[in-house]
What we know:
Helix content: over 70%
Number of strands: 2
Strand content: under 5%
CATH class: Mainly Alpha
Radius of gyration: 20 Å
Shape: globular
CATH architecture: Orthogonal Bundle
Amino acid sequence: xxxxxxxxxxxxxxxxxxxxxxxxxxxxxxxxxxxxxxxxxxxxxxxxxxxxxxxxxxxxxxxxxxxxxxxxxxxxxxxxxxxxxxxxxxxxxxxxxxxxxxxxxxxxxxxxxxxxxxxxxxxxxxxxxxxxxxxxxxxxxxxxxxxxxxxxxxxxxxxxxxxxxxxxxxxxxxxxxxxxxxxxxxxxxxxxxxxxxxxxxxxxxxxxxxxxxxxxxxxxxxxxxxxxxxxxxxxxxxxxxxxxxxxxxxxxxxxxxxxxxxxxxxxxxxxxxxxxxxxxxxxxxxxxxxxxxxxxxxxxxxxxxxxxxxxxxxxxxxxxxxxxxx
Length: 326
């Protein structure tokens, strides 16, 4: 029982950064933009928040955890949103190829994180690692009282606020897309921008806003991983393939934010399953790490065969919109 409880807690912990990334990518793709720069944006969000907290703790006379939280949270949102804004400028205004721009943004973001991570590490006097324990303590504070309840407490109430924020964001996005006029406009832009344009919807504005907001949300996945999951430390290349798992989760969730919640926990469990499976060799461990992608491929094949319209990607996904062609 204790082992199962530990596994479920770790699965949820692993899944939250993936959920943030997937939520950000879902709202981006609903506008018709395909942002493969999400892994890089998560790196940028993580290192920006950590850098902001590091300099605050370094120069503040008496660092306060809550103030460090606010500063690092704001830094992550700003830098991540700038990444989404850059993507929008290149793809929406300049009509650059979305796949190329996204992959370049991921390469840049990983390099950005590793470069500044190494630089700040030297300032901290460490070797390859930074620590902002004071700020991280605010991120890791669980719900008082409720977290002490046996079994239920550790499983549902023992996480920091970013864990609960990720679920709130996904639920809010689901409501926004399904039940609001602006959500309907956004979906129409992703399905058929020419028709949306003819109906008076500003296609470029919706694409810019969705991509920028989506990038800011995805960046919080990097902040979560650094602050809440790792406890305020940075290690170069420490994110692994969580950013790509977030993109894969978009397909598994069928472009529905609420599906991404349970999908992220599933991915989190599959991601660490090899640790809890005895007797595996190094080769079979690598096979276990492929499970999230295998599940995604199966879902993609099944949905393609069934061809239900509500389970398909946006009709204009990944394509540039030229108003002159309307």
